[in-house]
Amino acid sequence: MSVEKARLVEEAQRTGTLANLPRGHFISSHFVPSVSGREMESFDPGRGAAFASFAAGDGEDVDRAVAAARAALAGPWSRLSPAARGEILMRASRLIAERAARFAVVETLDSGKRLAEAEGDVAGVVRAFAYYAGAADKLHGDNVPLGSDHVGVTFEEPVGVAAQIVPWNYPLSTAARGIAPALAAGCTLVVKPAEQTPFTTLMLAELLHEAGLPEGVLNVVVGTGGDAGAALVAHPGIDHVTFTGSVATGQRVMRSAAEHVTRLVLELGGKSPVVLLADCDLDAATEGVIEAIFENAGQICSAGSRLIVEEAIAEQLLDRLVARAQALRPSHGLSDAGIGPINSPAQLARVAAHVERARAAGNRILTGGAIVPPEACGGGWFYQPTIVQAQGPDDPLVQEEIFGPVLTVQIVSDFEEAVAAANATRYALVAGIYTRDHARAWRFARTVDAGQVYINEFFAGGVAMPFGGNRKSGFGRAKGMAGLRSYCKLKSVVARI
User: Which residues contact 10 (CB under 8 A, 6 or more apart)?
Assistant: First the structure.
């Protein structure tokens, strides 16, 4: 453990917080209080206690932020070359790497996730800014052959002012994967982090200003979804919205954006299948399944929350998974052991309600299935790592996103039944398969409806691979060059010569 990381962990464990956390909105490159003067608290899920307060924004604060972003869109930022934008992003990447320990500890306090997971997120953010720094001057249109009398070209232009609605489960990662490509494309931004997890997004905005962003290019408004998020999505000064969250909220975002015909990228829910065929490497598959569902206590839209396993290996595999799940102990994220907490009491209650309905319907609880008493885990909000064998494909346990450390098991007889089961929900975000038969693996990849498919690994690919879903999992793509083009509008020009 580095000296700085050890110092920050000690401070957080001793005091329950960290000094000098940002409290205001970040507008026109300055931290400012809400127009209303209101504040709200942020809670440490590992202790179940407030550790800091921050500004509670509303429509007036959104108006200020959008005005700043629109002014910056017409200012010096619009005259910077793509290479110069890339240089700013690369400086930001280096600064994030230098301050990685503080970002990780703050992320753990705010979201609850294990410190090692937060450190992985920060490393991904460093990589994301470096990736888009390199891509900024490689975004170009095409020369279209129209014959000897005409020249046809296309241009990729910044879409304008982009709004980002960031979720609470991966606050820093999700903010970065939208901010970095939007800046590389030449957009300006207004970002609204989740009210449960505002701090690392505010820290990132301040750091980007230090890296050289002109005034007003990146603005952050903090507050609830109802007060600040809804006002941002509905604002006529917004040209594009990237939203990550639930299906129900995404539908409301679509309806609101339709009023001004605002462009959208939606990354919504998932109920992602992990298929294990009888010929798989059982050791690798077991570890992959455990990581796919219990990382971040299962609070991942792309979590491998449905295990679809061939009958021939089901008993042996489930014995292994139950033993591994029972060995995971609830622990504060800063201890970096076991499994971390659920982000909020409301989410904890939702997870518990899903499992209780499954129990009442006759589904077989193989392990877990209960809230951890607060006195047994330092007062935090924890749910036992849970594995449930589903009765049938139509059970809500199979069809509904739980967003917690709950693995649903479906046992199938062969490959064809596994593919049918994988496609049998309204979601289509990611899917995974473990098998030694690469022909069947690639057949699965072609047949399954998912935005991203993993073969013999889960959560693979990084920032270079486009990410997003189909059907009720949303549309549009983040990451990769596809994510960069999400923040562009295509212009065609034809000249007669």
Answer: none
Beta strands, E only, 288-443:
306-310, 364-367, 386-389, 406-412, 427-428, 430-434
- Whether 377 is a known active-site residue: answer no
115 in Cβ contact with 105 (< 8 Å): yes
The reply to whether 3-268+475-493 and 273-462 are identical in fold is no
Query: Is 287 considered catalytic here?
Result: no
- The domain spans of the chain are 3-268+475-493, 273-462
Length of the chain: 497
Cβ-based burial of 315 (10 A; exposed 0-12, middle 13-18, buried ≥19): exposed
Instruction: Tell me which residue of 239, 243, 230, 244 sits closest to 260, measured CA to CA.
Output: 239
User: Do 409 and 307 form a contact (C-beta atoms < 8 A)?
Assistant: yes
Q: Give the 3-state secondary structure of residue 165.
A: strand
d(CA 24, CA 216): 15
Nearest residue to 268 via CA among 467, 54, 475, 457 = 475
Residue of 187, 280, 301, 488 with catalytic role: 301
CA distances from residue 272 to 64, 289, 303, 392, 482 in whole angstroms, order as listed: 40, 12, 6, 16, 22
Of the residues 267, 295, 400, 401, which is catalytic? 267
195-205 pLDDT, tens digit per residue, is 999 999 999 99
CATH of 273-462, one of 3.40.30.10, 3.40.50.280, 3.20.20.300, 3.40.309.10: 3.40.309.10
Residues 281-324: pLDDT tens digits?
999 999 999 999 999 999 999 999 999 999 999 999 999 999 99
Tell me the whole-structure pTM to 2 decimals.
0.95
Quick one: which H or E segment has residue 276?
strand 273-276
Strands (E), 277-405: 306-310, 364-367, 386-389
User: What topology is assigned to 3-268+475-493 in CATH?
Assistant: Aldehyde Dehydrogenase; Chain A, domain 1 (3.40.605)
The whole-chain average pLDDT of the chain stands at: 96
